[in-house]
């Protein structure tokens, strides 16, 4: 249902820019106002982070935070469409911030040229309404999950490798968190990195776009449609998607359960036996 | 009984790169999921079984689906696989 | 299967740039060489055309053609992520060409600041291996289809509206064409335009990324996976995709059948009772 | 017999904005698809029926799926709908 409200705070240049978005059913003027008044933190400005940031900035999310310690390399550009050749060697967070500012100067962008760690996470995350996990390694995924649970933020989590991708939302509307589904980190030798296995640009394009849409659904309060308690699995080679039902919030979960054992951030590199950075592991 | 097994997220690489396996147990009407997993380890998977099975269950990081729903909703490893069930093993991805 | 070949024509800067793509299974060095030696024509530099062009240029398609008569408006920017505010008023084809050249200077881009019509289509299309339909109206869709059938080019067709999208490949590997499935144009009053119904950026992001991947599969000869004879239907609100089986090539089809009645391009604005441009219909 | 009807591509707007309709015909075992379409026109759709039905079949631009496959693979309008079939009506999209 389209929601029209008489008193709104959108400026004429916002009406002009977002017109075809706010006439979309279930967005409406009130939905657009929610987007403009919200803040989203994106962990990772790489293959997934680029489409997420491009679509969220163009949609008019009021404040975007971009966290990435890496710098742009030419070998990133086959899939990281938010960077430019001229950004080679500079921070990915800054490079992506520059691109999205040229696309939409109405929004605010904060860049964090730092590794997201147990030391930096809480100070950064507290300023945002929603977190997007667009990272590339196991340790960061557990860290982001726990930080979201401890601060009560919904987490839109996407991942990709080769021809495949996966996406779901954690810690949303009393749904499960990452640890509810994966209480124990995978053995190190079973984890394939994009730098080893390869990954195609359109795969991260699909998953990143899907992550941006989940953020929009959460912020416009389209609760029923949110991918919570459901996991979307994508096989690009066969062009088949599968939406499967996963377990709900687990009362025995170590971080979001009834008697959590994790009540503050831990050392995730130790927990996962791996680094916070894909490249650091090489 | 016939069981359809699907592998994704790279797990198919351990199983001859085949994403779909159809198995028939002509002498059974049902089979404990644990036995099916061990059967897969011993018959379909030839090497590096520790990338699939640890402590007689799937290793951490593998999500098991029974007819498109999380196995935890059906009792996990103690589920009894029935004729025509589809069991999916998904290795979770971490890249981006 | 990864294909390694000893004699290849990739230059060192191409190996550097496409390394993580060419190590992906079923791409390989030979697949990358195919991409670098291919040409793709994209009809429409709007919501779908932007992600298609960004991902195909970054993947290293040798030559991209961009056809669009429109100019960039601020109201496009909520979903057309390949343009910039500073491109306001200039040709969409030129604006998008500028963005992708900054992303990958190794490829060649041709811009056509013209409406794709029965008069211009054949001259443009003959220079390309594959065509992507990223247009926004019925008349152009029939025109592009017939031009592809008459010149024997595969067609990767995507469309989107509101929260939904659809994608399939036509005229590929003896599969059906658009007219096989839709022999008669829809009544004008049943066609909703994006300018009336709205559309969300991530929806065109998903469909455009999927179109780019189909192009890559066709060019790298991953025939089995191509969405031919299958239609992918996407409902973004419920986060559900459905891949459905559609009819094969129809012997009675007016353009690709055994006794075609359409043997050269016709007047599609008359056939469809509508214009070649969404905005012209306003 | 029970039939599940799904609408997409905007067609649901003609049907009370509901994307899924379950219909039961307690006196039938099967029903010609043509009769089902006319039933939908006369009972589920209240106005502007020409946006759905023209000349006693669906209008051009609507793709009909029978259990996830194109109705042309099953004889089109002459198909007989059976118990538990899912019939999907999709309006093709043209925007971009
Ligand atoms: Zn939990
Ligand atoms: Zn045809």
Protein described:
The complex is a heterotetramer, with two copies of chain A (282 residues) and two copies of chain B (96 residues). Chain A is globular, with a radius of gyration of 18 Å. Chain A is 33% helix and 16% strand. The termini of chain A are far apart. Chain A has helices at 12-22, 28-36, 49-59, 92-103, 121-125, 138-151, 178-181, 194-197, 201-219, 268-272, and strands spanning 39-43, 63-67, 108-112, 130-133, 155-161, 164-170, 230-235, 240-245. In chain B, a hairpin with a 2-residue loop joins strand 4 (53-54) and strand 5 (57-58). Classes of the chains: A alpha/beta (282), B mainly beta (96). Chains A and C meet through helix 1, helix 3, helix 8, helix 9 and strand 8 of A and helix 1, helix 3, helix 8, helix 9 and strand 8 of C. The complex binds zinc ion (2 copies). Residues 176-177, 179-180, 250, 253, 255-256 of chain C line the site of one zinc ion.
Provide a compact summary of the structure:
By secondary structure, chain A is of the alpha/beta class. Chain A contains ten helices and eight strands.
Structural features:
heterotetramer; A: 8-stranded mixed beta sheet; 10 helices; 8 strands; 33% helix; B: 96 residues; mainly beta; Ubiquitin-like (UB roll); 5-stranded mixed beta sheet; two-stranded antiparallel ribbon; binds zinc ion; cytoplasm (chains B, D); protein tag activity (chains B, D); tRNA processing (chains B, D); Ubiquitin-related modifier 1 homolog (chains B, D); Mopterin_synth/thiamin_S_b (chains B, D)
């Amino acid at each position: 249902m389209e929601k029209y409200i008489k008193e709104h705070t959108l400026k004429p240049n916002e009406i002009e820019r977002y017109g075809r978005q706010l006439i979309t059913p279930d967005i409406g003027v009130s939905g657009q106002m929610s987007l403009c008044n919200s803040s989203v933190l994106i962990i990772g400005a790489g293959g997934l982070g680029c489409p997420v940031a491009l679509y969220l900035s163009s949609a008019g999310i009021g404040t975007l935070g971009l966290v990435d310690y890496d710098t742009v390399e030419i070998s990133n550009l086959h899939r990281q469409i938010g960077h430019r050749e001229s950004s080679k060697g500079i921070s990915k967070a800054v490079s992506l911030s520059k691109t999205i500012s040229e696309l939409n100067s109405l929004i605010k962008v904060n860049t964090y040229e730092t590794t997201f760690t147990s030391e930096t996470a809480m100070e950064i995350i507290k300023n945002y309404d929603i977190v997007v996990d667009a990272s590339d390694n196991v340790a960061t995924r557990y860290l982001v999950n726990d930080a979201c649970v401890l601060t009560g933020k919904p987490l839109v989590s996407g991942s990709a490798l080769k021809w495949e991708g996966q996406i779901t939302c954690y810690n949303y509307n009393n749904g499960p968190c990452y640890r509810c589904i994966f209480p124990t980190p995978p053995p190190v030798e079973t984890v394939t990195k994009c730098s080893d296995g390869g990954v195609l640009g359109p795969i991260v394009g699909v998953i990143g776009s899907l992550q941006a849409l989940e953020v929009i659904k959460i912020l416009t309060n389209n609760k029923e449609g949110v991918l919570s308690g459901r996991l979307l699995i994508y096989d690009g080679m066969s062009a088949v998607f599968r939406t499967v039902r996963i377990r709900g919030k687990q009362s025995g979960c170590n971080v979001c359960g009834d008697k959590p054992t994790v009540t503050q951030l831990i050392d995730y590199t130790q927990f996962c036996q791996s680094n916070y950075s894909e490249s650091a592991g090489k | 009984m016939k069981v359809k097994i699907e592998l994704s997220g790279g797990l198919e690489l351990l199983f001859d790169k085949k994403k779909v396996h159809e198995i028939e147990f002509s002498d059974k009407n049902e089979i404990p999921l644990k036995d099916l997993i061990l059967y897969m380890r011993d018959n379909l998977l030839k090497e590096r079984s520790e990338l699939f099975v640890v402590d007689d269950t799937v290793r951490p990081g593998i999500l098991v689906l029974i007819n498109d729903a999380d196995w935890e909703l059906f009792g996990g490893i103690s589920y009894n696989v029935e004729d025509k069930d589809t069991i999916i093993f998904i290795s979770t991805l971490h890249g981006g």
